[in-house]
Every structure is written in structure tokens, then in C-alpha cells.
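Next comes a single protein record:
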Amino acid sequence: MTLLIAQTGAPTPVVNRSLAGFIEGVGDAELLFAHGGPDALVEGRITDVPPDGRELVRTGSWLRGGRRSITDDDLDTIVDTLAARGVTGLGLIGGNGTMAFLSAIGQRASQRGNGLRVVGIPKTIDNDIVRVDHTPGFASAARYLATTVTDMARDHEAMAGVETLRIVEVMGRDTGWLALAACYHEHDEDYAPDLVLTPEHAFDRDDFLADIDRIVRERRRALVVVSEGVAPELTRQPVKARNHTQLIQGGIARILAEDASAALNISARGEVIGTAQRCNSALVSPVDAREARRVGEEAGAWLRDPEGLTNVMVGLDRDGEVAPVALSDVGGHVRYVPQEWQTNDPSLLKSFHSWLSPLVALV
């Protein structure tokens, strides 16, 4: 038995924990590593040299990441490469696009009479994978954002005399999970954001300016959190590209700040937090670290068992328990913020805060 582990997409603060769990889960089975994202699978960059144990508690990704628009020829090449190396089981770490990719590999292998078994390991800070309560990687990013935006709110209060409006941009192409997490303020209720903009709501400029004008009149300052995927027509960033192979650098916060400044005659600043939310090591959620390792370990154990599961992802429930979920139910689907939490008013997010609180562990 020979098993292989790889990753696609971007790192999370805890993705190396999933690798550590997978290594433990496979036990004494022969283990190979595709080092370099989807390109490594297509190009056959596979090694049997394991990571140094110190790498497995760091941020970043020892397996590396990356994105690629996969073709039918790529799928054939991957199946051929794995067969040539004697690989009988493939574990792939990633998000909903990764699960679609893994499902396609499994289907192509089956069509060609190859007995390859495949198991997905969920990973994304965006929390947009269906059939899980929360995604490994999200809780640490949420903890970082909740802490950081609270600090930025305190800073903004001090500087409101020269900076009336501050708009803070967080990641989230299709969904507002991270933006809502950035509004978490149970640890310091005096410093909640005043407004949150997410992709689940169509952006309306007039409503936005009216909200800012009202908040400034009431409080003399306004702090706004916005997802990078809001109003992509204004940034011309490829946030809606399905293969995600183009670099996304954000910018909606700065555009909205400039617009509000000109329209309302106020001073405004746009901030883009960027990759810090997925690579911060100081604020890793203990729950997230534990669960990331657990899903990796379970995937390794399923592949180690000759009669074990295949064409599944390791699902995760509210209590951190795992169960198999069919890849066909996950791949390519987006888990949007539920209707009950789709609001622009952070003061209406009490139930969301109750859901999030155990994951971020700030109070």
C-alpha cells in the first residue's frame, strides 16, 4: 500500500496540522508527498522525504499550495503518474474547488479501471465548504480578525478627529463569513464595527452613502468592514473567476473610502488586511489546531484501511466530530452565510457571535 498527500489552494494558519494528522493516521503505510500544489500532481513532483516535525506546527504550508485550471489531459496525466508510483490512495487538502478536482481524479481513475481511492481533507479560511459546521482554518482567521479589527476600532476612535471613516477589507470572494467574524466584539463590546458589507448582499451605492452619513451624524465617526468580493464591478478584480488562477489583491475598501470622502466631504481611509489573516501564528485558535489535525488523521486512517472509504471528504460537525461526506455533494458548491445572519448591522449578529464564540475562544 502506497498513499500520497497533496494540497491545492492557499495556506491556512493550521493546514500543517492536517498534514501532521494524516502522517499519523496512515501509520506504517508507505507515504509520498506531492510538493507544490496541483502543478506537482500534474508534473509528477513527488517525494518520499517527510517534513521536519517543526514544520508541522508552523503557518504557511509545507506541501505548498497553488491553483491550476485542470484539463482532461491533466487528469489522465495524474492518474498515470500515480499508477506508475504505485499509489493506491490519495488524500487532498483544500476547499470546495479542490473537492471537485479530487472527485474528477477519482472518477477518471475508476473509468480507467484503476483502483485508486480518494479522500478529501477540508481546508479554507473562507468557511464556504458545504456539509460541515465550520471549516478548519476559519476559526484561526476569525480569531485574528476579531482581535485585529477591535484594535483597529480603538485606534480609529483615537484618530477620529482627522479620520472620520475607516473601511477595513477582509478576504471572502463569494461569502461574508470572514467579514462577520471581523465584527465579533463579545470580548470588547464598546468597539464593534458600525457596518458590514458582504457578497450575499448586492451593493447599493446610495444606501451605503446614506448609512455612512447617518452613522457619522450619530457618532461622529464610522468603522466599516467589507468583504473583498463586494461590488467586483468597481475593482475589476477576478474575485468571481471559477478557477481562481489569477492573483486577487483586493481594493474595494480604498475605492469606497475615496467615494465616500468625495460624496460626503469627510476624511476616509481604506485598509486591506490581506494575507495576514491566513498566515498569522500568534492568534491560532486552539479548537482550530485540534480539529485540523483530527480531519487529517481521519483521512489517513480511512485510506490506510484496504476496505475503507473512498470518494468522500472528512466532514466536521459542531462538536468537532467527523463523518464521511460524498465528494459529489461538496465539490464546486458554495456555503453562503445563512439568511438569519445576512445583515449589514453588526448589532444584529448576537446569534452568530454565540455560534462563533467557542471557535475563536476570546471570552
